[in-house]
Amino acid sequence: MKQYNAIKAKHPGALLLFRVGDFYETFGEDAIVASKILEIVLTKRANGAASHIELAGFPHHALDTYLPRLVRAGQRVAICDQLEDPKGVKGIVKRGVTELVTPGVSLNDNVLSVKRNNYLASVCFGKDYTGIAFLDISTGEFLCAQGDTSYIEKLIQGFKPSEILYCRQQSEQCKTFLKDEYNIFRLEDWVFTHDYGYEKLIKHFATNSLKGFGIENLQEGIIAAGAILYYLEATEHHQVSHVSAISRIEEDRYVWLDKFTIRNLELLYPQHEGGVPLISILDKCITPMGARMLKKWVVLPLKNKKAIDFRLKIVSYLKEKDALRERLLDFLSQVGDLERLISKVATGRINPRETVQLKNSLLQVKPIKDLLMACEHAEIRHLAGVLDACQNLIDQISTYIKDQPPLQAHQGGVIQDGIHEELDELRKLAYSGKDFLLQIQKREIEKTGISSLKIAYNKVFGYYLEVSNAHKDKVPTEWIRKQTLVNAERYITEELKVYEEKILNAEEQIFKIEHQLYQDLVAFSTEYVGAVQKNAIQLAKIDCLLSFAEIAEANNYCQPEVDESHVLDIKSGRHAVIEKQLPPGESYVPNDILLDNESQQILVITGPNMAGKSALLRQTALIALMAQMGSFVPAKSAHVGLVDKIFTRVGASDNLSRGESTFMVEMIETASILNNLSDRSLVLMDEIGRGTSTYDGISIAWSIVEYLHNQPQSRAKTLFATHYHELNQLEEDFPRVKNFNVSVKEAGNKVIFLRKLKPGGSEHSFGIHVAQMAGMPNQVVIRSSEILQYLEKDKLRSKRKKPLNDISKVNYQLNLFEAKDPHYEQVKKALQSLDINTISPVEALLKLNELQKLLVDPIEEKSASSQ
To answer: Which distant-in-sequence residues (6+ apart) come within 8 Å of 380 by Cβ?
Structure first.
């Protein structure tokens, strides 16, 4: 326990797994925590002067089962192993922490997700900027960025780090910023200094400066990156040669997607249980590297036309070449996780089976390269030109390692025959033992006449001769008796002991030689870390572009035209996710969208609930995003003028725990949009102002549209969906505002949602019809109709009291009470269309209400006009 307490004191924040014999044990508070997370038995044991101490443990071979559960529960786990062989030690075995596994720092396959990066992040708050760094130790990817807090929030939302480091001095600021949504860990203040971080980085990369990485002037970013390297040392991760470079996430290269947009558009994760994110539709990748890269492409769409066209040209070519796609997919299906395999080489953690997997994966590189280099397409040949077959590494692994080796190097049977002369001789001695023993057995049977004589082995006596009691009297005097059984006696001879020693020594020497040869091979393989990492990146790109080609072919996507204009012109656009979720036989209703900066900057879209306004907004953003990722898009045609920022204000949820209502969340998100507009922004706003009173909501929505229209430097292309039909008047006052509505068809007392966008404003919400469709009690539905009728009459009275013309246009007062006069012809048509024999009582009452409204309103209007 003294030894345990001393080690625990060095890692107070970690749960300590203490190796005792064949078990990993936890003690005290750690045992209580571990027993709950792992659902294992919690026991107690006397501990010297203390009355008891809690214990909970599991067999050492079950570490890969239990460790992931602890890490996923947010625990930092210190693995304390025996550092020497207990057989050769008197007293307490020397122990020490061999690895500290945290949510953000792990190389364990059972902790890691195959299709997702496991990022450790570090954040540093400066006076003017905030710095952030991301490291995936399992792949060696090291990234750095710097900007305002909203940019850093966006990166955290997109990269979804498993753990975030921060400075003790900035504890309150960090907790306010991250809001308990992530696993966080505090480091001392001195770690978060520029001098320390800079020195740490140049020492690690063996350079004189950081100019070559493009981060020389990112002061806060350098501090954050340096803290990550410190943390690797603190967690006993010293073999990190695969972290060979650090890249800057250049804000100017990618489309700005704030954290609200990433969430609202459901790019990576669904907002609601059972939802489907965009990545589920786009990701048809075969390799783990490709799946991880595609996630980055989704949250970091390109702004550079040349880079976008490069991807689109390759996708277009692959889409037309079915045979080429099939052959590439066949080769890629045999490629393992090259990034993580070569990282294990660099850290010395790769096992023999993974080494063979590395070889088999590299064997696919040459045929893929040859296949692509034979294409007439310049972009594809350029992509393939970077691939390196790594033939020497393949040859070395093939020469040294057997095709089906055991999992661990120390188990023997890893190295091929004919590689090491002494090894072959020892194997002959050790593994030809059966023949030698059979010869001894045969000879002794003939010599003694004991027909039932047999030779066997156990760990206590080694090799022995066993004679049944019936032949006991035939045993030679030189045999030494070692054990008496019920029906037999066991003996040893000098010859057996000599041979036993030879065999046991041979086995020990075999394991020793094989282990050394394997370690030499791993050391040789480290020279190829950079080359294999480049291969992994190129194969991931090929995989992503193949995925785009596959979905384009399968889902009837078109190639978008991307240019430097300010036009977004989509013909027959569809929602990539919704169209795949429709019931069989039901097709998605496509729509056209045209936005530009000169004539049609803002579309005010009205229409009833459930008509498809939100889907229309989202599909427009997704089409623009997919185009700038380099993907084909779900449309008949799409002309996309480069977009640099996409903002969405779609849906909201209460955040009562932080004291924020739905309306407050809505206003925060809207403020973020209005404060970050640019001339190439695409803005999607859905039902702004619905979280407050009607008049407040209309006023806010009106002023937002006006603000978006009147910004001289940033004519953001905007889709503004609303229930407030009064906003239709904006078209008359502002030249670049146009009214559209999502059409419906009234058939009797039913509403059919056509989901088609057409010019002009809508005057009805059909909310009562939707309530009826949802199963609202009939009494409530009928009463709602009565109240609506009353309110609409009240609007007409109010209209007479204060005409809109009397209100100053300067204040942009809204035309709140506009309604068209109904016609008697409608009453006649409604009555003629009724089938009294089939109509239900509830439908009859609703129809009566409707007719009453049509009759009463005109009479009142006529009376008012005569007065």
So the answer is: 314, 317, 318, 372
In this structure, of 42-56, 117-131, 411-425, 444-458, the range with the lowest mean pLDDT score is 42-56
Buried b (16+ CB within 10 A) or exposed e, 766-777: bebbbebeeeee
With tokens 């008891």, the residue in question is 52
Q: What is the dihedral of CA 254, 378, 295, 535, to 10 degrees?
A: -120
> Which one, of 567, 630, 607, 565, lies nearest residue 756 by Cα?
607
**Do 78 and 151 belong together in one domain?**
no
On whether the CB atoms of residues 736 and 715 are closer than 8 A, the answer is yes
Residues in the chain: 867
Residue 610 is predicted with a pLDDT of: 67
Amino acid at position 641, single letter: G
Residues 6+ apart with CB under 8 A from 864: 796, 800
pLDDT of residue 350: 92
Contact between 157 and 259 under an 8 Å Cβ cutoff? The reply is: yes
Which are the contacts of 276, defined by CB distance < 8 A and separation ≥ 6? 266, 270, 577, 580, 581
Residue type, 799: K
The rounded mean pLDDT for the chain is 84
φ, ψ of residue 676 to 5 degrees: the values are -130, 25
Task: Give kind and range of the element (H or E) at residue 158.
Answer: helix 149-159
Angle at which helices 694-710 and 662-674 pack, to 10 degrees?
A: 10
The CATH number of the domain holding residue 499 is 1.10.1420.10
pLDDT for 821: 45
Distance CA 77, CA 284 (A): 35
Tell whether 610 and 738 lie within a shared domain: yes
- The mean pLDDT value for 62-76 works out to 89
- Reported as a single tens digit per residue, the pLDDT across 722-751 is 877 778 888 888 899 999 988 766 555 555
**Token duo for residue 689:** 């102002």
> Residue 676 belongs to a domain with what CATH number?
3.40.50.300
Rounded Cα–Cα distance for residues 283 and 274 (Å): 18
- pLDDT 10s digits, 100-138: 999 999 888 888 888 899 999 999 999 889 999 999 999
pTM for the complete prediction? 0.80
Domain identity same for 182 and 209: yes
C-beta separation of 31 from 20 below 8 A? no
Please, is 752 exposed, middle or buried when counting C-beta atoms within 10 Å of its C-beta (0-12, 13-18, 19+)?
exposed
Residues 368, 466, single domain; the answer is no
Can you tell me the distance from the alpha carbon of 367 to that of 394, in angstroms, rounded to the nearest whole number? Answer: 14
Nearest-5° angle of CA 287, CA 291, CA 296? Answer: 145
Q: How many domains does the chain have?
A: 6
Note whether 743 and 843 are same-domain residues: no
Nearest Cα neighbor of 255 from 720, 704, 685, 676 is 676
Copy the structure tokens of residue 302.
């390109």
DSSP bridge partners of 47: 50
At residue 814, the pLDDT reads 39
CA 58 to chain centre: 31
Alpha carbons 107 and 67: distance in angstroms, whole number? 12
Answer yes or no: do 163 and 57 share one domain.
no
Residue 695 lies in a domain: yes
C-alpha distances (whole Å) from 472 to each of 345, 437, 453, 485 are: 58, 21, 10, 12
- Nearest 10 degrees: CA dihedral of 688, 691, 692, 693? 90
Q: Which helix (H) or strand (E) holds 143?
A: strand 141-147
Residue 614 CA from chain centroid, whole number: 25
Residues 620 and 640 in one domain: yes
Amino acid (one-letter) located at 85: D
| Strand ranges, E, within 554-609 | 561-563, 568-573, 591-595, 602-606
Rounded to the nearest 10 degrees, the angle between the axes of helix 352-362 and helix 338-346 is 130
> What residue numbers bound the domain in which 618 lies?
559-764
Report the alpha-carbon distance of residue 810 to residue 340 in Å, rounded. 64
On whether both 679 and 600 belong to a single domain, the answer is yes
Phi, psi of 807 (to 5 degrees): -95, 135
